[in-house]
Amino acid sequence: MSTYPPIAEHGVVGDLQTAALVSSAGTIDWWCAPRFDSPSVFASLLDSERGGYCRVALDPAAENVTIRQLYLPDTAVLVTRFAGPDGVGEVADLMDPILGTEPTDRHRLVRVVRVVRGSLTFTLDCRPRFDYGRATHTLECVDKQTAVFQSPGADLHLQATGPVTLENDGDDITARFTLSAGERAAVVLTTTASGGPVSAAPTWASVTDEFERCRSFWQTWLRSSTYRGRWRDMVNRSAITLKLLTYAPTGAPIAAATMGLPEQVGGERNWDYRYTWIRDGSLSVRALIDLGFTEEAYAFRRWLRDRVAAGATASGDPLQIMYRIDGDPHLEEEILDHLEGYQGSAPVRVGNGAADQVQLDIYGEMADAVSRADIGDIAGWQAFAKVLDWLADNWDRPDEGIWETRGGRQEFTYSRLMTWVAFQRGVRMATEFSRPADVTRWTKERDAVFEQIIDRGWSEKRQAFVQHYATEVLDASLLLMPRMGFLSPKDAMWLSTLDAMDAELVSDSLVYRYDPEASPDGLRGSEGTFNLCSFLYVEALARAGRLHQARYAFDKMLTYANHVGLFAEEIGPSGEQLGNFPQAFTHLALVAAAIALDDALDRAEAVPAPTGD
Q1: I need a surface site. Which of 13, 353, 432, 579 has the fewest CB within 10 A?
Q2: Which positions ≥6 away from 296 have C-beta within 8 Å?
Q3: Res. 524: pLDDT tops 60
Q4: Dihedral, CA atoms, 339, 342, 347, 351, nearest 10 degrees?
Q5: Does an H or E element contain 589, and which?
Q6: Buried residues in 4-41 as b, exposed as e (16+ CB within 10 A)
Q7: How many Cα atoms occupy the beta-carbon half-sphere of 211 within 13 Å?
Q8: In angstroms, rounded to a whole number, what is the distance separating the alpha carbons of residues 501 and 417?
């Protein structure tokens, strides 16, 4: 089996329509274009031989080299620094954000190479493999610094500046060049539709302008953040990551930038996360709203309204659990059996077969996100009210649940919790903004859901709320109960549930979703602790007033971030990051935990210390 970099050994760059992963060795090993959910141009992260990559790094003959990767502060400009006996050099990767709502098939990734001390020799290897390695391509060398890779569905243009002279290696490109202190070179990759015109040759002026525009965009955007708490660097990085994972033309956030990265190396839990889940998107937008970023909330609400208006879901329900970023509900799952998968983790799936599952909790997350912003226009309210009228007739039925289990439908407690949230938020908004609605019916159903959860979701044996009504298994998704206002965070039933989770699901502050052996989910293999749940645990502890435990768990969890502050979906048994990367779920939960813990600590510190007589 080929060698693969650890999942955590990557940073991400993007232009708000697509994103690329860059390894700490200077290799772009994942990039899909023209959209997040398009076929790949580079995918060596899923097959090092067939996937394709673009590497800019020190000559392999260099010895005693130290590599460090970092972001320029408060930006998505990623710097990979090489330091050795012969000097210090850097590769800065960036994609200038594409603003506005018009999608484009032209996307540029700029790689700026510079030496700050000494003299260093770099190598360039550009070996694209279009359409997940299924499409062939031809190579046209326009001149010594311009090459065009042509495939049936897309093209890639490679342009260079400075002393970089391109040489063909079959249908691929290589180069070897030396820079001394103060010298620079640039490698510009541009994806286009097949047959697209080649851009004007880059100049130092154009590359510098692009660099400054990108840096300025992120620093200016981040200034809108209202967060002033104790963990500003980590919260800012999470906010930037959530923004990077949002498709600007529609306002739709994706769950992660990648597909196929395993929850267990060698296992089958390898999913395509490059789509918009109603749940993940709603929670992402709530996190951004809580940080003061309202523009993203309005865009996502328009996207939601359009989905309700479009209908045409596989289940016939008003919404389905996930869509493509343009709102297309069709996500047929396909096995790419020609790819070996990350470290042999097969099958590699594109598309997502869970799209037609029934997961009733999505209506609660949607309602909660909508309620966090202004009420919006009349059409938006009418669409929202229509959904709640439907939910009033349909909430009391089994579904597949938040974790998209493939082991059959159950009456999941979390799904019921979130239908309660949907009715509660709807009643509150209708009353507060005097909007027309069947408030009497919504109130009746809200109370019926509440009573059912207390009656059937509570286990006297476990003294805890359980995963679904036919089990005694615990489920960490219920850590959201206090945040959603279902119970007081210091209610005796909730504190007992929190204690039960602490005993069964928590391992040194890291939290498992549930025990798949005790509650089979229809899939083989195991998984690591779930980062979302670990941060929800912190938030629940903070709300319960267990501040020392909450702060320890939060600080401990932050140590599992990678070298540039990013998280995948899970933490494995050896502390390694697992699953798709970077994961929106994790970063939105980090933001929520930081805000809740900051608020609780501030309140505690504001209480005067007792004084003696």
Answers
A1: 432
A2: 243, 246, 251, 285, 288, 289
A3: no
A4: -80
A5: helix 584-606
A6: bbebbbbbbbbbbbbbbbbbbbbbbbbbbbbbbbbbbb
A7: 20
A8: 18
Burial track 275-292 (b if 16+ CB lie within 10 A, e otherwise): bbbbbbbbbbbbbbbbbe
**Of the candidates 76, 114, 460, 18, which has an alpha carbon nearest to the alpha carbon of residue 238?**
76
pTM of structure: 0.95
The single residue listed with the structure tokens 């959904």 is: 387
Model pLDDT for residues 175-191, shown as the tens digit of each residue: 999 999 999 999 999 99
The span from the CA of 281 to the CA of 13, in Å, is 20
SS (H, E, C) 447-497: HHHHHHHHHHCEECCCCEECCECCCCCCCHHHHHCCCCCCCCCCCHHHHHH
Cα–Cα distance for residue pair 585/513, rounded to 1 Å: 13
Dist CA 245 CA 484 (whole Å): 25
* Residue 26, both tokens: 């200077």
Asked whether 63 and 211 are in contact (CB, 8 A), the reply is: no
For the segment 373-415, what is each residue's pLDDT rounded down to a tens digit?
666 678 888 889 999 999 999 999 999 999 987 678 999 999 9
Q: How many helices (DSSP H) and strands (DSSP E) are in the chain?
A: 13, 28
Residue 356 burial (CB count, 10 A): 17
Pairing of strands 510-511, 154-160: unpaired
Closest CA to 51 of 259, 340, 352, 270: 340
DSSP label at 542?
A: H
Quote the CA–CA distance of 444 and 217 in Å, as a whole number. Answer: 48
Query: Are 349 and 270 spatial neighbours (Cβ–Cβ below 8 Å)?
Result: yes
Residue 313 — very low, low, confident or very high, per pLDDT cuts 50/70/90?
Answer: confident
Q: Which amino acid is at 601?
A: L
On whether the CB atoms of residues 253 and 274 are closer than 8 A, the answer is: no
Alpha carbon 587 to its chain's center:
7
Q: Can you tell me whether residue 346 is helix, strand or coil? A: coil
Which pairs with CB-CB distance under 8 Å and at least 24 residues apart come from 301-305? 301/369, 301/370, 301/373, 301/376, 301/380, 302/251, 302/380, 303/250, 303/251, 303/252, 303/276, 303/327, 304/278, 304/366, 304/370, 304/383, 305/379, 305/380, 305/383, 305/384
Angle subtended by helix axes 232-244 and 584-606, to nearest 10: 150
User: Using an 8 Å Cβ cutoff, are 223 and 292 in contact?
Assistant: no
Q: How far is CA 448 from CA 141, 388, 419, 439, 443, in A?
A: 69, 15, 11, 14, 9
pLDDT in tens, 342-367: 999 999 999 998 888 999 999 999 99
- Least trusted range by pLDDT, from 167-181, 215-229, 236-250, 515-529: 515-529
What is the Cα–Cα distance from 42 to 172, expressed in whole angstroms?
13
Rg (CA), the chain: 25
